[in-house]
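Incident review: delayed structure delivery

Summary: a single-chain prediction request sat in the queue longer than the usual turnaround. Root cause was a stuck worker, restarted by the on-call engineer. No data loss occurred. The affected request and its eventual output are reproduced below so the record is complete for anyone auditing the incident later.

Affected input:
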Amino acid sequence: MTNIPHDEPVFQISVVARMVGLHQQTIRSYERVGLVQPARSGGNTRLFSARDVEQLQQVIRLVNDLGVNLAG
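Output delivered after worker restart:
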C-alpha cells in the first residue's frame, strides 16, 4: 500500500472485515451510526480507504479496551 493514497477507497467490505476482525454486518451497523463513512462505487459497493480501516480499528479499541458503547 505504499503507493496508494491513504484516503483512496480501495477495499471492499469483505476484505475490511478480515483486516479488522469484524463481521460485515457489524461494519454496516457502524456505518449506519456514522462511525465510518466509506465511499461508494458506481454500483453502490462500499469501498474503504486505509483511513477508514484505521477508524474502524480505533472504534474496536474503544469498545474492547475501554468499554465505550456505540452511543458514547
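Verification: The first strand starts at residue 11 and ends at 12.
Action items: add queue-age alerting; document worker restart procedure.
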